[in-house]
Amino acid sequence: MEPSHDRLLDGEALPLPEPWIRILDSGVRNTLEAQLKVEVGEGHPLFGKSVTALARCGRCDEALFGVEGAPTHFAQVHLTWRSAPDTPPWPWTEFLSPPLFDSLADHAH
Ligand SMILES: [Zn+2]
Question: How far is CA 19 from the centre of its chain?
Fold first, then answer.
């Protein structure tokens, strides 16, 4: 069973594969969520979605977001740190299939 948003947010231990780092700092979380909103333009699968930044890669600009929905799903996004919306399909987004741990472990550099 997939962990819920809330479980990931409330600090309950969820093991993440290296080099993924849980986002526990609300300032970092807000920054990533705001940046995602800047980058996704109309036509992007995350446009207008309510997302929560959950983790980030320690080695690149890839971030993991929980996407509100029924059920909640998870998106791995390569943020570009542009200051204006990008052209879909950028920022590159991959919807992860369960189990989350294995999907994140597939992330290679
Ligand atoms: Zn990475």
Answer: 14
The rounded Å distance from CA 105 to ligand 1 centre is 10
pTM for the full model? Answer: 0.87
Distance from Cα 54 to the centre of ligand 1, integer Å? 14
Element (H, E) at 30: helix 26-39
> Given the structure tokens 């997302």, which residue do they identify?
51
In one-letter notation, the amino acid at residue 47 is F
18 alpha carbon to ligand 1 midpoint, in Å?
A: 9
pLDDT of residue 3: 53
What's the gap in Å between 60 CA and the centre of ligand 1?
4
Task: Indicate the domain borders of the chain.
Answer: 5-105
Give CA–CA dist 107/100, Å, rounded: 11
